[in-house]
Amino acid sequence: MTAAGTSEAGSFGAARSFFMQGLDDMTPPRASLPRRRLLRGTAALAAGFAGPWGLHHAWAQARAKKPLLIGLATDDTGQYAASGQDEQRGMRMAIAEANERGGVLGRRLEVVHADTAGDPAVAAPVAERLIRQQEVAFLMGGVHSGVASAMSKVAQAHGCIYFNTNSSSPTEAGKDCHRTKFVWDGNGTNFSTSVVKGAMTGFGRDWVLITSDYTWGRNTARGIRGIVEGNGGRIVEELVVPQNTPDFSAVLNKVRAIKPGVIATAVGGDDLTLLRRQVRENSMDRGFGWINNQQDWPDVYGLGREALFGIFGTTWYWGLGLAGVPEFVARYQRTQGDYRIKVPGNVFYNGYMATRELLRAIERTASTNNLKLIKELETLRIPALDRMQHHDAYMNPQTHQLQQTIYMAAYNDRPRRSDDLFRILGRLQPHEVEDRASTQQCSLESYAATPSYEP
Amino acid sequence: MDWLLALLPHLVNGISLGLLFALIALGFMLIVGVMETINLAHGSLFALGMYAALFLLAPKLGWFPELQAGYMSLPVGTRYAIALFFAPILVGLFGLLLELCLRRTYGKDPLYGLLLTFGAALVIEELIRVTWGSNEQQMALPPTISGAFMMGDLMYSRYRVFASGFAILAIVALWLFLEKTPYGAIIKAGAHDSEMVRALGIHLGRLRSAVFALGVALAAIAGVVMAPIWGIRPHVGVDAVVPAFLIIVLGGVGSLWGAVIAGLLVGLVVGLTGAYASEWSLMSMYLLFIAVVTFRSRGLFGKKSVLDT
Question: Which of A13, A318, B59, B169 reaches 20 to 30 Å from A336, CA-CA?
Fold first, then answer.
């Protein structure tokens, strides 16, 4: 900053003295002003002002204006700690890139972070503190649906725009939707739709559900049940397990006794990792069709292929082979060299993309006013190439959930390298996996009922 | 008859789970019973045992690549045996250091000991996070105890059978140590009447150190055994300390067989509710606890305990 300031002052001083010299020359016979000298004077003035001023315009503005403070409320601890830390890195990378370009609307971006601990009881006060005391401009984060729901209620009460980056409960853009909340991940219904039909053909019509006993688990299981029964399948039994269950052996015994064709899990985070471990331990990964609704990259990275099984949905994979992906991966590797995960996954991607789109929307509207931004985001369309997916994505204005390509994947038994864990089996366009129930259940607050918020 | 056959795998699973719960509670029981200190760091030490075993199974010796390669060329079974033997010793030595801090709380309000061990639990968990990261880790297992085997129509995990067998061995070994050796007699005497033990010329400080280290080593043994089942993550200790506390209160503070029977009861209750009303599986052990403690506050086999005072 000091060097830039010096350079700016020096150039400005030189131009000014040159210009004054020209004025002195002009004074006696005004008509005799040599044209070449005038041109040189003007050029020097332009260089003095426009050169350094143009170069350092953004920084100068950023210094002058109040920084834009973004609140990252993510899980550092708890069941979803791995994903919480991953999405935070994605958000920070997008913010760092924007700052390298000079910030947004001439305002430097700053970050304040708080741990939501995967606990809704922690999340609501965290959101309250970030908005009221820290005065954040925007609130981002959320893997646990209870956490996302709790934060979004607080954000709506204040009018603060909240981006739910990675929580995929159908209720988030359904009955718990809010005018100020935008949901960036695919939801349980999107993912289930993508995998259920294929699994029914391959493994049979008798299904067992293993459901985690909280909002996301219950709602995702309900979504799966609807899709299975809608396609002629049968839910033989639903086994609901408490969150943080350390032992699934009793449930697995029960599954073995039932002998279903397919077992669909609506279990997330550490619980899913544990369930998968115990399925392997009991050699139950063979002989059944396993559907893991969504597979978050931080939960599987580094576990080794022998511990991974089943079919699942995902929004993005680093091995998609699309334009822009190698550059994105290279940027990731340059900036996240200290991180155990050596290639980006869906959670990082969601955090990055959501933040990038927020900052772009601010630039487009030239405003940080919440209502202007909400209206802008409600009409958002993102070209496939720009999102590094196969189909264009668009924001559903009725639910505020981003509609995007959903990929069906399984674990890769022929990896090109150790990080090549997923084999993409197919993909569906956003409208093919749309969660229509959410549209019916969501009732957004009116613009008038949403408090104005302009940081 | 059919219902009995249907029930059989759940009963077997419940007993196996109970033995593992009892194993987790042993170290906790020993420290509370002898030292009247509720060691809230038990869960973190359990987790530390897992990580110590992980290190011993696949050490990362950056400065000694040849040594590392040589060690890694040993069969997994050998490295697993080394981990199972040495990880508890390493964590037990760490326990000795912790006991040095704990000494200042002896004879004072039990709250001091509680606070110290609670603080230690947080520190150990953060140390683990800083050293190994917060992500889930996997422990390699020898092929002989991996996978599952069939017994009639029933399929069992080889590792669970091994772990349950190991738990039985550990329980019996601890019982033999406490009941059949002079050291066990001193420990029990120390728990019963520390003044008399001191009058007999036994150094009470050393006795307490030894008991604490043994309790910590038992927590680490449980950690090593449970690692392939529960997975290895920094906060896994929470899953251990809650049932351990519940089991020793349920069984009666200071009673070895009380802890074993309480562990089996908890395992059976959790296993059966997991099969027939899975959403109640965690709640069921607390309901059992409330039911027993309501009618017998000292637990099933408890005599006088610190909780009575």
Answer: B59
> Contact, A244 vs A269, CB < 8 A?
no
Which among B19, B135, B247 is the top mutation candidate for probing chain A, defined by the most A β-carbons within 10 Å of its own β-carbon? B135
d(CA A185, CA B256): 51
CA distances (Å), origin A388, targets A150, A316, B69:
31, 8, 41
Each residue's pLDDT expressed in tens, for chain B with a length of 309 residues: 677 777 887 888 889 989 999 999 999 988 988 788 889 999 999 999 999 999 999 888 777 888 888 888 899 999 999 999 999 999 999 999 999 999 888 878 889 999 999 999 999 999 998 898 877 788 888 888 888 887 766 678 889 899 999 999 999 999 999 889 988 888 878 777 777 888 888 888 888 899 999 999 999 999 999 998 888 988 888 888 888 999 999 998 878 899 999 999 999 999 889 888 888 888 999 999 999 989 888 888 877 555 454
Residue A434 contacts residue A402 (beta carbons within 8 Å): no
pTM strictly above 0.90: no
B275: nearest CB among A253, A273, A301: A253
- Rounded-to-10 torsion of CA B219, B225, B226, B229: 180
CB contact under 8 A, A253 and B13: yes
**In chain A, which residues have their Cβ closer than 8 Å to the Cβ of B9?**
253, 256-257
Question: How high is the pLDDT of residue A306?
Answer: 58
- Backbone CA torsion sign across A139, A143, A147, A150: positive
ipTM of the predicted structure?
0.72
Neighbours of B179 (CB within 10 A): 11
Does B275 contact chain A (CB < 8 Å)?
yes
**B164 — contact with chain A (CB < 8 Å)?**
no
Per-domain boundaries in chain B = 2-308
Q: Do B136 and A270 touch (CB under 8 A)?
A: yes
Query: A259 at the B interface (CB within 8 A)?
Result: no
**Distance (Å, whole) CA B90 – CA B84:** 11
Q: Return the structure tokens found at A180.
A: 């100020």
Say whether B278 and A254 touch across the interface (CB within 8 A). yes
Which residues of B fall within a CB distance of 8 Å from A275? none
Contact A273 B231 (CB under 8 A): yes
Tell the CATH topology of B2-308: ABC transporter involved in vitamin B12 uptake, BtuC (1.10.3470)
| A·B CB contacts under 8 A | 107
Of A250, A301, A304, the CB nearest to B275: A250
Q: How far is B118 from chain A (nearest CA, A)?
A: 18
Long-range contact list for B288-292, CB < 8 A, 24+ apart? B288/B250, B289/B246, B289/B249, B289/B250, B292/B250
Q: Interior CA angle at A139 toward A325 and A66, to 5°?
A: 100
